[in-house]
Amino acid sequence: MGDRGTQPGLTSKVPDRPPHELVVAPAGHPRRSEIQKQCIDVRIAVFIHEQGFSIDDEVDKYDSDPRATHILLRLVPSMTPIGTIRAVKLAPGKYKLSRLAVLKEYRQYRFGRDLVHALHAWVEQSASQDGVQSAQIIAHSQIPVKPFYAKYGYVNEGPEFEEDGAPHQKMVFQLQLSR
């Protein structure tokens, strides 16, 4: 994915982060199509141009699915999109994390962490509205970024598999809802 994190045991100072905001665009958001397009633009820059994935694999059925919520990270005041993550509600209490991407020149600021935390906050709100006690979040991680997800409590489930022409690992996080 776009955010590589750091190697375990190494500490590094994060440079001063540029001013930014997160925009959460679930179904019904008045500017959802505009936000979604900006999210896809970031994904194309990272997954197509940088990592060499196919555009046919990148834009998928969930992009227009009303169960999907697109989260955009952008600079302010320029409103330049620099990161994205997508949550798809599969069932009450069951979600899919996908399409996490941060433009290469902004990874040093660890914006991937902000995107994961924003997705977790949105899942907690959504699951609370459904009246469930916990939520399961599933991610299909590219192999090099498994440690990034592990930092947030995601654990491997099952064997590695190929998806979109690259090896992936299913990783699962159990989110206990605060009451």
Automatic annotation (TrEMBL):
GO biological process, one term: UDP-N-acetylglucosamine biosynthetic process
InterPro entries: Acyl_CoA_acyltransferase, GNAT_dom
Taxonomic superkingdom: Eukaryota
TM annotation in the entry: none
Molecular function terms, GO-annotated: acyltransferase activity, transferring groups other than amino-acyl groups
Family matches, as Pfam families: Acetyltransf_10
Domain N-acetyltransferase, chain residue ranges per copy: 83-174
SUPFAM superfamilies membership: Acyl-CoA N-acyltransferases (Nat) (SSF55729)
Protein's name in the database: N-acetyltransferase domain-containing protein
